[in-house]
Amino acid sequence: MLQIPQNHIHTRSTPFWNKKTAPAGIFERHLDKGTRPGVYPRLSVMQGAVKYLGYADEHSSEPEDIMVINAGEFGVFPPQKWHNIEVMTDDTYFNIDFFVAPEVLMEGANPRKVIPGENNDEKSHLYRHGNE
């Protein structure tokens, strides 16, 4: 089973969804922002079951990876993988957590610098964004 690297950081969670409340696109084959390099989605099933289907590319007719995630279990999806999910029962209830590599988080970060205050002591330093 694929594991999330230990240094990856939990960045967000989806709401808990069922067949009716989940976004329709999650059930269609897609490659979304959540599966960019360094991002591992983890799907947790609270009730019912979800089937994950992973494809080699956008046009593959058959999945190359199939994983059934039952109630009380979770499945980790590889980054940059075309995929979709199927809800296996009408009462299925699940959510998705995203774990991101530190270097991916830093790509969009605005660097901060320390600006000395009037007294030049540690307590008077101000933190400023970028070139402010």
Automatic annotation (TrEMBL):
The highest taxon in the source lineage is Bacteria
What start and end residues bound the annotated signal peptide?
Answer: none
UniProt-annotated stretches for the region Disordered: 112-132
Query: What InterPro entries does this protein's entry cite?
Result: RmlC-like_jellyroll, TehB/YeaR-like_dom, Tellurite-R_YeaR
Question: Which residue numbers delimit the TehB/YeaR-like domain?
Answer: 12-96
What Gene3D superfamilies does this protein's entry cite? Jelly Rolls (2.60.120.10)
Biased-composition ranges, Basic and acidic residues, are 120-132
Q: What is this protein called?
A: TehB/YeaR-like domain-containing protein
